[in-house]
UniProtKB/TrEMBL annotation:
GO terms for molecular function: heme binding; iron ion binding; monooxygenase activity; oxidoreductase activity, acting on paired donors, with incorporation or reduction of molecular oxygen. It comes from Streptomyces angustmyceticus. The keyword Metal-binding applies. Keywords: Heme, Iron, Metal-binding, Monooxygenase, Oxidoreductase. PROSITE patterns: CYTOCHROME_P450. InterPro entries: Cyt_P450, Cyt_P450_B, Cyt_P450_CS, Cyt_P450_sf. The keyword Hydrolase does not apply. This is Cytochrome P450. PANTHER family: P450, PUTATIVE (EUROFUNG)-RELATED (PTHR46696). Belongs to the cytochrome P450 family.
Length: 406
């Protein structure tokens, strides 16, 4: 690597859903681009300032595909991917696959989905009300809402959703310290399931996105069979786990640590769209404080005045960038009335999240339903007793017991 001393071992201690590790504040000021020794034993460059992270996300000299090639260095805390996944591709191949589905996630088309999403949310909230508190919000709302929505978008039968959830969450909540065995097992189960689902939809198309992709494969030969299978489970897996975690962590932040902000939403639900943007910025999703998807330099470049040599891995801390005081006033404060909010929680550049509008809408509908139906929502157990998944990708609540009323 380029001549520069290695900083502390990465990931840094102290990261939580409340925010990135405290070490990032010093790095942004003193060493905004720094070498770190990762949990996988590989040295990498860590980028921490907003301006640098945003520019790097859009820089074609930083490759996702190179990190997935055979023999590429394994960086601890990075998401398990395969070379065929859209998040693993660069350039023309990425563009070709993205064009096949981008039309399904336009703002206009997502808005047409709003009544259906609202119906699913209302049914889940009705069930919560009928049961009475305490209930597990993860089990009753934050997982089934995005899971059902993405399942209906892609034509997954409702009776299969719970089975699919088990495999998809095992894949998404990889724990590198266990060798990734659970994640790989989930990936295998997802692959098996999607192969069967594709066979069913090839025999009897149902007008959903997966049926459209099959038609593209069979009629225009734009997808290989493996691409079709991989794209199917990538979209379904990515379509609910991130939203489920973000929603659960956001509700926890409001009802446990920021009751004043929760009460403000109860009094004025019209503030919820702005609140969602601030929660996306402030609530830290990533356990390593990075996106979980490293890049590899394919040619020499500079980031923040530091020379990165071709072949060196680069980690981009979205969580740190979202707390950069040069962009956000008082960045460590959760302020649901914050105006300008150019957070990069959905990324930037060619891998900018396709489902950003759908994720926003689901969060808006879920929060609006909760503040309207359960204005005195609160934790049913001390926050210190909440169970968290111990993997190295997301801060994932495995249960969120809440209650309301007397």
């Amino acid at each position: 690597m380029s001549a520069c001393p290695v900083s502390d071992a990465f990931p840094f201690p102290g990261s939580s859903y409340h925010g990135p590790a405290p070490h990032y504040a010093r790095l942004r000021t003193e060493q905004p681009v720094v070498r770190v020794r990762t949990a996988g034993g590989v040295d990498a460059w860590l980028v921490t300032r907003y301006e640098d992270v945003r520019a790097a996300l859009a820089d074609p000299r930083l490759s996702r595909a190179e990190t997935c090639r055979p023999g590429a260095p394994r960086i601890g805390g990075s998401m398990t991917t395969t070379p065929e996944m859209i998040i693993s591709l660069d350039g023309a191949e990425h563009t070709r696959l993205r064009k096949l589905v981008v039309g399904a996630f336009t703002t206009r088309r997502v808005e047409r989905m709003r009544p259906g999403v609202q119906k699913v949310a209302d049914e889940l909230l009705d069930d919560m009300a009928d049961r009475g508190g305490p209930v597990d919000l993860v089990q009753r709302l934050t997982v089934p809402l995005p899971l059902t929505v993405i399942g209906e978008l892609l034509g997954v039968p409702r009776e299969d959703l719970r089975q699919f959830e088990t495999h998809a969450r095992a894949f998404a909540t990889v724990d590198d310290r266990a060798g990734g065995a659970e994640s790989l097992a989930g990936l295998a189960k997802l692959n098996e399931y999607i192969v069967g689902l594709i066979a069913d939809k090839r025999a009897e198309p149902t007008g959903d996105m997966l049926s459209d992709l099959i038609a593209a494969r069979d009629h225009d030969d734009r997808l290989s069979e493996q691409e079709l299978v991989t794209f199917g489970f990538t979209l379904i897996g990515a379509g609910f786990d991130t939203t489920a975690n973000q929603l659960a962590n956001s509700v926890l932040a409001l009802v446990a640590g920021h009751r004043d902000q929760w009460r403000a939403l109860v009094e004025d639900p019209g503030r919820i769209p702005d609140a969602v943007e601030e929660l996306l910025r402030h609530v830290n999703l990533f356990a390593t404080d990075t996106s979980g998807f490293p890049r590899m330099a394919v040619e020499d470049l500079e980031i923040g005045g530091v020379r990165i040599a071709a072949g060196e891995p680069v980690l981009l801390s979205l969580a740190s960038a979202n707390r950069d005081p040069s962009v956000f006033d008082d960045p460590d404060r959760l302020d649901l009335s914050r105006g300008r909010n150019p957070h990069i929680s959905f990324g930037h550049g060619i891998h900018y999240c396709l489902g950003k509008q759908l994720g926003r809408m689901e969060m808006e509908i879920a929060l609006a339903g909760l503040v309207r139906r359960f204005p005195d929502l609160r934790l049913a157990v001390p926050e210190s007793e909440l169970p968290w998944h111990t993997g190295e990708i997301n801060h994932t609540l495995t249960s969120l017991p809440v209650t309301w009323g007397a």
